[in-house]
Amino acid sequence: MAARIHGGAGAGAATALSTFNPKKLVAPSRTNLPAITRSKRYIVASGSDASNKSLRVRHSQKLIANAAVAVCLLSLILHELLLFEALQEGLEEEMDRDPHVCVMGEDVGHYGGSYKVTKGLADKFGDLRVLDTPICENAFTGMGIGAAMTGLRPVIEGMNMGFLLLAFNQISNNCGMLHYTSGGQFTIPVVIRGPGGVGRQLGAEHSQRLESYFQSIPGIQMVACSTPYNAKGLMKAAIRSENPVILFEHVLLYNLKEKIPDEEYICNLEEAEMVRPGEHITILTYSRMRYHVMQAAKTLVNKGYDPEVIDIRSLKPFDLYTIGNSVKKTHRVLIVEECMRTGGIGASLTAAINENFHDYLDAPVMCLSSQDVPTPYAGTLEEWTVVQPAQIVTAVEQLCQ
Amino acid sequence: MATSFSSATIPLHGSQENRLLLPPIRLAPSSSSFLGSTRSLTIPSSRRLYHAHAARRSPVVGVQEVVKDKKITNTLLITKEEGLVLYEDMILGRSFEDMCAQMYYRGKMFGFVHLYNGQEAVSTGFIKLLTQSDSVVSTYRDHVHALSKGVSARAVMSELFGKVTGCCRGQGGSMHMFSKEHNVLGGFAFIGEGIPVATGAAFTSKYKREVLKQDCEDVTIAFFGDGTCNNGQFYECLNMAALYKLPIIFVVENNLWAIGMSHLRSTSDPEIWKKGPAFGMPGVHVDGMDVLKVREVAKEAVTRARRGEGPTLVECETYRFRGHSLADPDELRDAAEKAKYAARDPITALKKYLVENKLANEAELKSIEKKIDELVEEAVEFADASPQPGRSQLLENVFADPKGFGIGPDGRYRCEDPKFTEGTAQV
Question: Record's Pfam families (chain B) (predicted)?
């Protein structure tokens, strides 16, 4: 049974973002929907021009028709919310589910969180479960790690990801390493989360992308959310995971609006998300650049190209299964990221693809990253430090020659 | 048994000045005597201290010379059983560390090994008061803390030899002793790194009591040195511990030297116990070469923590008889200083106390020493005979959930870089 979810335009997203609105219920076969729905339906409705390719339905093999209809209807009960509300929902559901889950960070309690992700939680769960810490990132991150070793499941918030540079000692030495160094005796089920990335003229120190610094630390997983759907799913999955997970959010994406299912779901932490299937070229991206890529994709489609866009989501480990399948199909790869050119996620990904899928490539892997500059304050300069849709279009045209 | 925390007049900070022998910086460090150990300072009752942070001047706190008092009133501090337990623990610490040195020079263990000779009173004095569910966090000088807490000598020795049967399967080494069973939370190589972890363990204790409504009286003890007390993490944790009234005890093992840096050369105010009241917790100074004095202070601090009255900062004046590590030639410290502290060897002192107070005779103590010698020998044999870790152990335990490597739900390496596990990790 085919169904189309109508996406309205205008997501209420930050103005700098494209008008592409991911108002689709993406439930590809690999996404972990809870056991309630065994449907492997894959429904995509794009807000762009209606083309045959944008609507594709695959049915599960083993459903009884009535159950299929019931399940179908169940997974279609949606509610609309903003990305920070989705994070809050995910966090609240996990805190309801497990009393060991707690939050620590600056201004997460009474203030409700600088980006309102923890709004209302202190009133509901109390001041100890939603702990307002003093300004000592190293110490409270370490405190979270110690608490995790002794049985709690803290969610540590960095008010801005850049502040976690102060906690680097604890994240690198303790968070990543203690499970191994203790011979497997202690697990560290923490979630370290916070907004990062280039915002609106926030200046150099508030516009940092820490994923490149953290990626070498053995023993941690890194994920980046980009839509309300995957924000909630990844938050829940990260909290349930026994590994330490760093969840990267983006300052400019907090006001994205999307309809997400009422029923509970989690997203797989190690999986990438197929945003737009295609044939000509694979574009790998994550976080905010996804929207720049989709904006460029509209232009490209008009020009006759058919890009396959994958939001890699999992920054460590890379989902080379999805990426590999895509490379084997399209033979061309473009990576679009917000990290710096030197030593960023894109650099690692380029190396991984070249090493593993070299035979399948028709052209060298191209990686578009931010300039290696401290993000300037001036609006024009800031715009030129990050990758813009026009550059993406040019790069695709160049690769597809 | 009189408590050492009796309320008495608090000499305010100002009046102490004429008694302080604070040396000017230009003096050679080894020629100055350490402050306070022979001084009797007084401590206010904890209620007065609670309001301490409101006072303009931080109250001076210390501990009275309880042992001297005790002798006057003829009441003993310990029973025979307790005395023998303490003695055995200290002898175990000393013998074990001496054996470590031997094994290191024979090439059985490598890397950085930091020995605890001379400081046994601190470990024994505090840890022998704890239960199994209480936690201990230490630094790289952690062999004896692990032993006092209950980790078997075999497990520690095997860990030092890098064998599979070690407490951390050979993956930690000298500086990373962990034990889930005995709640030893490490073993950290960077100084100050363990203090936030200890604060977290204390936080869990409080959380269990207040949020999960469980009966939890667990306390955490964080051991660290004088060098750490100049590190930011220390102060950040003092603040948080006092703020949230966490059941934690911060124990400073002030042995006056951070490798070759004298405490007096690196610290603007060398009296570390004073830093406690600055954050609103009692700061206590005690003679760390005397296990009975340490034990008295520890009892009070642990009771405070279990009652939910918050943290305590205890500064133990102690000394390490060997160098910072086995690689340290230890040429900088003055022979006279070393001799002075060698004369205050905690084991000799306890032995003297036990014998003089008729708690034990020489024969019993000798038999304990013999037993420990055999235990340590056996530990070495066990470690020698244990197998080394195999290749397959290299990638185990990196992640609690191996999906972190990208293994799919069916158990196969699905998402990961196929070259990752075969890559350059071919040692």
Answer: E1_dh (PF00676)
Instruction: State yes or no: pLDDT of A23 exceeds 80.
Output: no
Residues in chain A: 401
CA separation for the pair B427, B412 (Å, rounded): 24
Give A352's contacts in chain B (Cβ within 8 Å): 417
Q: How high is the ipTM of this complex?
A: 0.82
Inter-chain CB proximity A134 and B405 less than 8 Å? no
Q: How far apart are CA A122 and CA A88, in angstroms?
A: 12
Residue B101 to chain A, least CA–CA distance (Å)? 23
Sequence-separated (6 or more) residues with CB below 8 Å from residue A373: A385
Which positions ≥6 away from A197 have C-beta within 8 Å? Answer: A161, A207, A209, A248, A250, A251, A252, A287, A288, A338
Chain A nearest CA to B142, separation (Å) = 14
Task: Check whether A41 has a pLDDT greater than 70.
Answer: no
For B399, the 3-state DSSP assignment is coil
Beta bridge partners of A157: A105, A193
Contacts of A322 in chain B (CB under 8 A): 415
**Residue B12 contacts residue B59 (beta carbons within 8 Å):** yes
How many angstroms separate the first and last alpha carbons of chain B? 60
Please tell me which residue of chain B has the smallest CA distance to A169.
B193
Give the active site residue among A94, A157, A206, A211.
A206
> Taking residues B366-392, what's their average pLDDT?
96
Whether A21 and chain B come into contact, CB under 8 Å, resolves to no
**Phi, psi torsion values for B405, nearest 5 degrees:** -85, -5
Instruction: Using an 8 Å CB-CB cutoff, list chain A residues near B408.
Output: 270, 321
Show the tokens assigned to A55: 């609507």
- The residue from A106, A137, A337, A338 that is catalytic is A137
> Catalytic: A331?
no
B305-348 pLDDT, tens digit each: 999 999 999 999 999 999 999 988 888 899 999 999 999 999 99
User: Rounded to whole angstroms, how far apart are CA atoms A172 and A182?
Assistant: 15
Between chains, do A355 and B208 touch, taking CB under 8 Å as contact?
no
CB contact at 8 A, A43 and A24: yes
Distance from CA of B127 to the nearest CA of A (A): 19
Amino acid occupying residue A396: V
What is the average per-residue pLDDT within A108-124?
95
